[in-house]
Amino acid sequence: MKTYYKLFCMLMLTGALTGCADKLDLVPVSDITSSGFWNTEDDCKAYLTGIYDQLRDNYGHDDDGTTYNTTLYFEDRSDSFQPGDIGPVTEAWSQSLTASNAPDWNGWYNLIYHCNLLLTEIEGISFREEAEKNQIKAEAHFLRAFAYFSLARIWGEVPLELEPILGPDVELKARAPLEEVFGQINQDIEQSLGLFPESGFSDKNRGSRPAALALKADVKMWTGKVLGGGSADFEAAIQAIDEIAAAGATLLDGPDKLANYRDLLSSGNKKNEEIVFSIFFDYQETNYRGDLYQMYATTLASWGINVQGADNYDELPVTEANRARAVYAPSEKLRNMLEEYPADVRDEIVIIDAIDGGDTILTCFNKFRGSVYDDRYFDDDIIVYRWGGLLLLKAEALAALNRPAEAVTELNKIRSRAGAPAYSGAMTKAAVEKAVLDERWRELVAELKRWPDLVRFHHGGTINIYEEVPNLNGKSGYPLYFPVHQSVLDNNELITQTDGYID
């Protein structure tokens, strides 16, 4: 039956659910039902844990459908990276995407499928406490909204599937208009907000009301600029962020500027006061393939053999075993941005040079350093939302509403924490918006925010993305969404290629 279910999943939603039985080590739906899987609240809790596992899975396995544990979607296409000492860089970084080399959306639709199944099956299960049931449903709606928001930012129009496919008759779906996709995202967010039994955090590695509010603010800033939603969306983003503040999110902002960032980003200080939602990793965890779970920082650090002669070897975030790959190094443009203010501690936090006799032999990212056990392991949590980023999102919304003085107030909270001087530039809408964009880069680089930021500020008129990203120079009109993989097109005749690419 497992073999049949895997074959059946390949037919689902343009072939997007390939191997979904294996993804969470599940037996087929028919076997789950007959064996009494969906009987207790513990079944639902275990299944939800598996969905979070899917969100962080597939790093290094693009053929299986990578989800969030990769720089591919939200960093590679930006101006943050240049080729590292090992590589290879992706076609996304070189802006040479085609139907044959594009990533597929399998992982995201696997995640959505399991959210759909959980939301369907949970309705027939009795819970000792209704609040427990509502918590699980709220998290499932939150995760489905996050998955569709990710899909919409990567591919634009995407198929909407809101029910689990439990039989052999599969209704093929076309790509839904963006307005419909975002209508569903907003609906899921509001459903989650209405269901969470607590106003604060129960676990920062799980969905919560503050996490759903952070997602709402992120969505509203996207629709406000990219889809032309304008002032109403910007106001909604500000309101959501203010509600998060009431839940207790705060900056780590002690007198030692450097220590603030080390505490914020340390794998030994996870779920600190600044974190709103993060994706959990731990030492020597393995996935269903038996592969070691590590976060995407492995592509931004180095294997120790590449820097053996470095005078500062002990300070470098390297692994002795061949786990860190140095696919990317920080771009010169990023380095120049980080060095703009001498007292800004983020330069040291983000970038580190391997030095041999005064010469730089390698440069890599230093932001996520993992933990050292018998060797270094990248067990850092993926920070999805934190208060520093949300303050800058609020500054962006205020600037978009042409309230520059208020925007600068929020901007300066981040600059002060970093040791950078207060903003002293022009107080025009355009100037403050550009300052916010630059500050988000300094603050959030390598946190999977730069490419969406560039797209958003491009549509908002602050920048021309084709001038901002070196690999887009001279490519005016090159699509900002990803192409659909050829296998998806082959499996579903209703799917059309993303505008700007050839089928």
From TrEMBL:
Residues 1-21 form the signal peptide. One of its GO terms (cellular component) is cell outer membrane. It holds the Pfam family SusD_RagB. Residues 44-217 form the SusD-like N-terminal domain. Residues 375-501 form the RagB/SusD domain. The keyword Signal applies. PROSITE patterns: PROKAR_LIPOPROTEIN (PS51257). It comes from the Bacteria. SUPFAM superfamilies: TPR-like. Keywords: Cell outer membrane, Membrane, Signal. Belongs to the SusD family. This is Putative outer membrane starch-binding protein. It comes from Anseongella ginsenosidimutans.
